[in-house]
Amino acid sequence: MSTSDPLIAAVRAVLENASTERPLYQRLASALLDAMTVGRIAGGQALPSERRLSGELGISRVTVRRALDLLAREGRLQRQQGAQTQIIPRVQKTLSNLTGFSEELQARGSRPGHRWISRQSGLPTPSEAMFLGLLSNDPVVRLVRIRMADGRPLAIERATVPQAILPSGELVEDSLYATLRALGCGPVRGAQRIRAGLMSPVEAEFLEAEAGASLLIIERRCYLADGRAVEYTETRYNGALYDFLTDLGS
Description:
This protein has 250 residues and is an alpha+beta fold. The protein has eight helices and nine strands. The radius of gyration is 19 Å and the shape is globular. The mean pLDDT is 84.
């Protein structure tokens, strides 16, 4: 079936080239997420209806609904009964330079440090499988740590990497990117999204702040030269201590 809607055409093209081993709802969610990332659909726009997506893509409405519910749980969509599904606006920055936390702080003249919370392996959550393009039984390595600047806690960082790329979290000492490059799997491109949030009591304890204080949340997905996703990281910065800077060209 052909369609004049560029979004549906783009989603169909991604689905046709995706591995059929992953659940269809995860493949559809990943295809829609990619469309948001590259700007085919922008914040504030409405998605086609479940009925239309189902009919034009040849996918059951139950599967379409599961994909949209997954994206809604990740804060990408706003869904209301009887209303159109809206894309939640996000600030997005394509990475011109792939630098890690330590390199970034050093460039700002600060002394980086960290405190490990956990380094564990396990099966991916549906969200991790969507972000990394994995099967439900493809193991991942999760790295959780408090990031420090000049001895003061600045951020909570949660990174997920396919175990096929990073065999063990114990291989990471200071820099995840340095470890990946040493394994011959350094990322070559990526994109990140930025949103605001409020600290939970647990997050406030980790960051030595007050519960309800502002957070700057940066989500990053990075890829290898062959197109495989190598990293999904969510970093929650103390909004009172961190400013996001980017250069603007003419």
